[in-house]
Automatic annotation (TrEMBL):
Family, similarity comment: Belongs to the iron/ascorbate-dependent oxidoreductase family.
PANTHER family linked: OXOGLUTARATE/IRON-DEPENDENT DIOXYGENASE
Organism of this sequence: Stylosanthes scabra
Name the UniProt record assigns to this protein: Fe2OG dioxygenase domain-containing protein
Region of interest (Disordered), residue spans: 236-268
Length: 268
């Protein structure tokens, strides 16, 4: 499995924030974010989601000595650190990230995955499988909504890899002068963004305007990534415009009858 890229090593923002500094180091200062569907009733167990949130909280609160064991290695992207840092002069984001390949399981770095404390590691494992299943359900529904030949997208994306990014934004003494995460599009197929608490900050760009997104309990923000958009523009030039004009941004996953039957069988 090839690496997804690399990033220069950067310090822990969480540790920096602990130093009760009144001024943010120069490197974090910046001169100074589309409506995306919010997904509820998604089938990922609420208790599992809560355990994962707790696990993320505990992971970022590990002592720095423990976190160092999970830090990015030079030339690698997985672990604690930041993404796309290519120069020592580059402005940094006011965030600590933890990046990990999650599926297929053989793509996991055992040195990293097996060092994630329990029970978070097992919960993460189950969570990733459930989100992976949700992703395929969404893709099937998008095929129908976009009138794409059945299974065409499913076949394209069913073996796609899954990775996870945990973003932690420590309190900042000069919040107006930094940026938590720079404006970006997601490179992959679909992103399921789980907001861990009620703190607002996420903005999505639509029609040239940045729109604040208020966190909803037990909901995912679903972002269509670059790969999916490109594939659909090429394959579905005409249908795209005609069928994607649904203004209702709260969507629920309707389970297909077949899946419901499967579940009934499993629960017997
Ligand atoms: O942490 C957030 O609210 C935004 C996360 C995000 O856009 C990303 O990780 O790509």
């Amino acid at each position: 499995m090839s690496k997804i890229g690399s990033s220069l090593l950067v310090p822990s923002v969480q540790e920096l924030a602990k130093q009760s500094i009144s001024q943010v180091p120069d490197r974090y200062l910046v001169l100074k974010q589309e409506e995306t569907p919010t997904l509820i009733n998604h089938g990922v167990e609420p208790s599992l989601v809560e355990s994962v949130k707790l696990g993320v909280h505990d992971l970022f609160n590990l002592p720095i000595e423990e976190k160092r064991k999970l830090w990015q290695k030079p030339g690698d992207m997985e672990g604690f650190g930041q993404l796309f840092v290519v120069s020592e002069n580059q402005k940094l984001e006011w965030a600590d990230l933890f990046i990990i390949n999650t599926l297929p399981s053989y793509a996991r770095d055992p040195n990293l995955f097996l060092n994630i404390p329990q029970p978070f590691r097992d919960n993460l494992d189950t969570y990733c499988l459930q989100v992976g299943k949700l992703c395929m359900t969404m893709i099937r529904q998008m095929e129908m909504a976009l009138k794409i030949k059945p299974n065409e997208l499913v076949e394209l994306f069913e073996d796609i890899s899954q990775s996870m990014r945990l973003n932690y934004y420590p309190p900042c003494p000069q919040p107006e002068k930094v940026i938590g995460l720079s404006p970006h599009s997601d490179a992959g197929c679909l992103t399921f963004l789980l907001q861990a608490n009620e703190v607002e900050g996420l903005q999505i760009r639509k029609d040239g305007m940045w729109i604040p997104i208020s966190p909803l309990p037990n909901a995912f923000i679903v972002n269509v990534g670059d790969i999916f958009e490109k594939k659909n523009i090429i394959n579905n030039n005409n249908n795209m415009n005609n069928n994607s004009s649904n203004n209702n941004n709260i969507i629920t996953v309707e389970k297909e009858e077949e899946e419901e039957e499967e579940e009934k069988m499993e629960n017997r």
